[in-house]
Predict the structure.
Amino acid sequence: MNLNDEHIYHPVYIAQYTLRLIDVFQTTSDSAVLKQIEIISEKLISLSHMKYHARFFPYSIDYQNHPNHFHYHYAPWYSGMAQGQILSVFARLYEITHTKKYLLICNEIFHSLTLLKGKQYSPWVMCVDQNKYLWIEEYPSEKPCFTLNGMIFGIYGVYDYYRITKNQEAKKILQASLTTVKHNLHKYRNKNEASYYCQVDQLKIIQYHDIVVGQLFQLYKITKDPFFHQQAELFESDTK
């Protein structure tokens, strides 16, 4: 993508584009599309960093996600949302190609989601709050902001990894993170208004509210828990 007239590799944009290509390939079986997916995956690997036997995908730009607060991220920095989305890419790529290399990459990415803040790991993208809820942090910082849509995108990655590997640690993280969303969702809802983007600022952004509505319906499909369907309908009704 281009930012301030500078070309950068944005890990989430790359992941989301690649996931769309995977959808196309699964529909068409077009080998040219698969080739493009594999080229992008190789570029992602080349951009990644290894630490603690975990694979991280950096942002190469400085970024401040809350202009009125202290959340300033200096490149290279890492995001739980990016880690989760790229984990989905490699999990689905392994699923369609059965190439062992992609499974090994999945294992390394997933390992990044086991490294908790406060355990002397740097970087980290996972933390536990004062109430012992597990969070996948889109914007890791000393005081996490618990961005809702980023958390759920991260959950998708853990789900895809568990779905193809049946890894029991992934199952525990998946269950814990789903519980976090379920028990904290009320903190984001604003009756008859867009929901809060995160827990730091009272930002109400309709585009992200709509994303969360779709995500809650998707969590229902994953879990079959009626709570998520009920909440999706409730959040949706707030901005009709």
In short: Residues 11-28 form the longest helix (18 residues). Residues 55 and 109 are 5 Å apart (CA to CA).
